[in-house]
Amino acid sequence: MSDWIQIKIRTTSKNADTIAALLEQLGSLAVTYSDAEDSPILEPLPGERRLWPNTDVTGLFDKGTDDKAIVNSLKQILGDHVPVMSVNLEDRDWIRAWMDSFKPLKFGKKLWICPTWCKVPDSDAVTVMLDPGLAFGTGTHPTTSLCLEWLDGLNLLDKTVLDYGCGSGILAIAALKLGAKEAYGVDIDPQALEASEENAKRNGVLDKLTLCDGKKSSSVLTPAPVTVANILCGPLAELEPHIAKLTAQGGMLALSGILTEQAPEIIDAYSKDFNMALSREKDGWALITGQKK
To answer: Which domains does the chain have, with CATH numbers?
Structure first.
C-alpha cells in the first residue's frame, strides 16, 4: 500500500481560498478545509459558503512528492511566520475507517443516536438512526448533546415539540421517538429541511413531522408547549420575539449553541417573555431552559 503526504497550513477565512489555489498549483491532488480552533459558524444561506475565522487548509500529495521543496516554496511566498506542517498519511480503507469512528451514543436515561450500520447495545433503548453528515448535527457536539439530554428528561407524551433551526432534524425526531404526538422542524436552509425529511422518513416519523421555512413559520405554525433551539448566541437574541410567538403560554423552552459566558446575554434577551436560567454546561457550552410567562 502506498502512502500520501499531507501539507497543512493554518490561515484565516479571508486567505483560505488563496492558499487552496496555491496548493493546487504546487501539485495537490485534493484540498480540504477544517476548523482550526473549534469555532462555531452559522449554517450558510443557500448558495453561500462560510469558513471558520481560523481555518486549516490541507493539501493531499502523492507519496513521491518532495514535500520539503513545497514547504520551502510556501514559506517563500507566504512568509516564515505562516504555520506549515507536512505529515505522511497511511493509505487505508478510509470509508471503513470513517464508519468505524462513529459509535452509538447515549443521551440521558434511554435515548440513543445510532448510525445505520451499528446496533444499540440496549434492548429497551429509544433509538434515532442517523448517519453523520457534513453540515448538520448528529449529537456529537456538546450543544446537541445538551438538548438531547433535556428532551430525554421531559414527559413528551401527546405533546407538540418545536425544533427551531432543525438542521438534520435530530431534535425533532428524538422528541417524536420519545413520545411527542407531533413536531415542527423550522430552518431557513432548504438543505436542512431536505435532510430533516430524509432522516424522519428513515426513522418512520415523517407523518408526525411538519417542516417549515423559518421565514414563514410564524404564519403557518401554532404555538408549541415545548420548544428547543440550538443555534448561536447572536441569532437566538434576535429571534426572541419570533420564538416567543411560537411557544405556548406556560410552555417549556431550551436554548443552546451558546458559550457559557454568553448565557447572561441570552437570559436577559428572553426575560421579557420567559423565566429563564442557566441549566447545564458542557465543554464551555451552555443550556438555558425556562418557561413562558
So the answer is: 3-91 (3.30.70.120), 137-292 (3.40.50.150)
Q: Please tell me the predicted confidence (pLDDT) of residue 134.
A: 43
Q: Could you tell me the three cell numbers for 185?
A: 422542524
> Which residues are part of a known binding site for S-adenosyl-L-methionine?
144, 165, 187, 230
From CA 36, how far away is CA 57, in angstroms rounded? 9
Distances (CA, A) of 204 to 32, 79, 132, 201: 35, 55, 18, 5
- Which candidate, 291, 286, 226, 292, places its Cα nearest to that of 256? 286
Angle CA 110–112–115, to nearest 5? 165
- Angle at the Cα of 61 from the Cα atoms of 55 and 66, rounded to 5 degrees: 110
DSSP letters spanning 57-73? EEEEEETTS-HHHHHHH
Q: What is the dihedral of CA 281, 285, 290, 293, to 10 degrees?
A: 150
144: Cβ contacts below 8 Å, ≥ 6 apart: 137, 138, 170, 171, 230, 256
pTM, to two decimals: 0.70
With contact defined as beta carbons under 8 Å apart, do 288 and 254 qualify? Answer: yes
Cβ neighbours for 262, distance < 8 A, ≥ 6 positions apart? 233, 286
pLDDT tens for 82-137 read 888 888 766 555 555 555 667 888 999 999 988 888 888 888 899 999 876 544 45
pLDDT tens digits for 133-185?
544 456 678 899 999 999 999 999 999 999 999 988 999 999 999 999 999 99
Annotated binding site: 144, 165, 187, 230
Query: Which of residues 99 and 209 earns the better pLDDT score?
Result: 209
